[in-house]
Prior knowledge:
By secondary structure, the chain is α+β, with helices and mostly antiparallel strands. It is 40% helix and 20% strand.
Amino acid sequence: MNDEKIEKVYDSSAIQVLEGLEAVRKRPGMYIGTTSSRGLHHLVWEIVDNAIDEALAGYCTHIEVTVGKDNSITVKDDGRGIPVDIHPKTGKSTVETVYTVLHAGGKFGGGGYKVSGGLHGVGASVVNALSDWLEVKVYKNGNVYYQRFSKGGHPEDNLKIIDKCDVNRTGTTVHFLPDDDIFTETTVYDYEILKTRLKELAFLNKGLRISLYDDREADKKDSFYYEGGIIEYVQMLNKNKNPIHETIVYVDGEDKDIKVEVAFQYNETYNSSIYSFVNNITTPEGGTHEDGVRRALTRILNKYATNAGLLKEKDDPLTGDDVREGITMIISIKHPNPQFEGQTKTKLGNSEVRTISDKIFSEALERFLMENPDQAKIIIDKSMTASRARVAAKKARELTRRKGDLDITNFYGKLSDCKSKDATVSEIFLVEGDSAGGSAIKGRDSMTQAILPLRGKILNVEKARLDRALSNEEIRTIITAFGTGIGEEFDLSKLRYHKIIIMTDADVDGSHIRVLLLTLFYRFFKPIVEAGHVYAAQPPLYRITHGKTRKYVLDDAERDEYLATLGPNVRYEIARMKGLGEMDAEELNETTMDINQRVLRKITVEDAISADEIFSKLMGEEVEPRREFIEQNATYANLDV
Ligand code: 1YM
């Protein structure tokens, strides 16, 4: 009785704090975006961000992340340790304040800005709110300080000294278990997701060691340390792309508290792979940091080429596309107050950054070109070849655009279009082989389903420039059918089918064709993939017949699951399905095309850098990386990143 009264009287501030965390538990999506697997991993990034900030401040050299047997997460750093003194505003230790007050992050403690932080950079208290329990240990002043919170961030006790340690030892260790009342979909951590991002963070923060351990599996660990930072990042990305000059150009500068780092190197391919980051967060939509660097690249290469007499007066100036052909570039800036805009809030808006990144990059680039005339010439030659090819491609493109020049009879002979002109309900099936194509035409719903049988080989566009791609019959047909145009004229709103469905056999040839098509889409129609219009049909592997019922299942697991539901006395028959070409129209419709029964797999590009790496590995010149990849990913499932 008495106890209860005391608590109510003097602990009202604590109650307010807990209400704050309660709000996070009520609407977790507001704070971490989603409670799916992505949200679960987001908890790790929030804690790692605080350790990265400590590294950026110059105090932390090693961050260790461990996945526990119970899928708990431990993040450990060797920084200064979160301050343990009483915080003037809350009357609690700073540790407790950081872990129980919403948005506590950089507002507390002295000086230094918080530069890292994800899209929902909301900090440690949110992780605490969404955890079953969370423990913080701080090594500082020769003491080990400890505090534990449970069920949504309730402190079990005050911050206490539990042990002594070497006076020179400092750091913070946070251990937490995500709450399965919140993460109802999954509480299992994916090692590969953690590994990919931690590796990226190590590339972006040179000299910082980041280690990952997995207690769920013996000897599973990785450690990342890049002395050269983004230089080594470019080196890795270009590994399978045959660089055409020796030096990876590196630029590092700072102006008005904004740090700009750029690294690039040209390779033999015809693609441009430019990846930009702000405060360690990827900015796939680009923004002012990218604009400044691109602008400077075009201007300086034109200036140098003209002065060096490589580009003559009669020549067209090099365009942005020309100078970006075959470039691999990382742009990483650190900004104390970034403003994000764009559809997915991943585009940097701060206008002052355009001038700053232009200035820092152009001065360094000019110096590099002056000091390395041999490499400068290689780069200018590459851009000038691109320029000539662009003119040729324009002519070829006009062929696909101007109906008069396209072999219409041939085109319509190939495409069996659907009757509907409403793109949102229209689908196009790209079908491997003529005989499957024939069955698909008979088995389709002609109102909404168009069929394009693919006869010839699809050209590998990883090894061909736009002009050559456009001379390929199959590719021209696909472009014409899609309706969007290509290159500078590409217009997503003109897409004639909102579902593009790749229908190939479940064998090696089938996956080869699928990879070729995906490479084509990824390199030439990326927005179509990004907008989620591309699917892979999944023909079933088995047909199970019992009585009058026919059931199609995708794989062994689904077969076993279904058979288990039949009971012991049911007589059934299992047939392994043939290739697409051997199915008749009815079978094909029933199993792969009927919108009420079929299973489609959406192809997404979650992570452009991984996709780029995978395509260059799979489709590039080098045979060894391709063999390695195929051996490691025999089922190809991983490409659906
Ligand atoms: C495993 C997670 O949180 N490390 C960490 C956090 C902080 C500091 C050091 C720190 C910051 C400052 C001064 C400062 C934080 N401190 C605060 C706050 N690792 C992890 N390491 N001294 C230590 O920013 O001035 C928030 S995070 F607010 F207390 F300063």
